[in-house]
Automatic annotation (TrEMBL):
Species of origin: Nocardiopsis composta
Gene3D superfamilies documented for this protein: CobW-like, C-terminal domain (3.30.1220.10), P-loop containing nucleotide triphosphate hydrolases (3.40.50.300)
Name of this chain's protein: G3E family GTPase
UniProt KW keywords: Chaperone, Hydrolase, Nucleotide-binding
Membrane-crossing segments per the record: none
Amino acid sequence: MPSDSAKIPVTVLTGFLGSGKTTLVNRILTADHEHRIAVIENEFGDIPIDDALVLSGDEEIIEMSNGCCLCCTARTDLIDILRRLLERQDRFDRILIETSGMADPNPVAQTFFVDEEVAANFELDGIVTMVDALHAEAHLEEGSGDGVGSHVADQIAFADRIVLNKTDLVGPAQADAVEERIRGLNATADIIRSRYADVDVADVLGIGSFSGASRSAEDPDRMDGGAHLHDPTLDSVALDLGGDVDRAAVESWVAALLRDRGEDVYRIKGLLSVGGDPRRFVLQGVHSMFEITPGTPWGGDRRSTRVVLIGRNLDREELDRGLRSCTAGAGVPVPR
């Protein structure tokens, strides 16, 4: 099995229709950088990337003119595509998966937890969501359930990084209002403002959210999540535990929680101070799948355990009791 450093990092790009995903993909495909990137269009229907960049056919891999990128248009199962990429003699530096505008990013993200061969060779780097600054608030008002508002809210809730695009079409006050609304749905994701999806490639690729290399892992205060306006359709619960935790106890608690409530817990993110270990541990979960991985040493920072859960129908008091039962020396909680 390859070491974590040898695994190919994968970025999932999501966002509602018209948010600018295709424009961002085209910028990445034609940018002057040193990465070899396979771009997977994980949708059915018309290929949204410019015709000049994609050959016709159900599945093609094309060397780009800048010699750095390759584009893979996927019309079959994602796992099959990833396995075929592994069979190629030339290796890729990164994979970028663009989902369709109405897609739930959860099944794509879970692929990197549930398939052993995929998990052994690829590492989920982060979920990037594009948000249309001009239309986001209207979309979010379009109802819950299966409505547009639910799709947009879910895509924001899953994100590790958010690109607030089309800021040239709104004034500063409206951009601030949209960002505040986003913060109500996701208190921990970085937000980058852009025009025409003109962002630095390094801001969307290689963010290290699932490996402990993100800025949240470097700065525990970014995990507070408690002082933001919350959208009524989603809950964001931030838990802060001053002392150390027992890693096995946390694993047991999270496993039981996601087993019973996985459909309601969209994302779980955390920084753990594990008793007897100098490193930060990073907790990342998507619905019923989660992992805990070691990160950088705490150094001179105040050690603390902070966990943020984003989802629906979350009981803060119950969750707080569950985390506190994981305090080092408290024993492993018994799953109910």
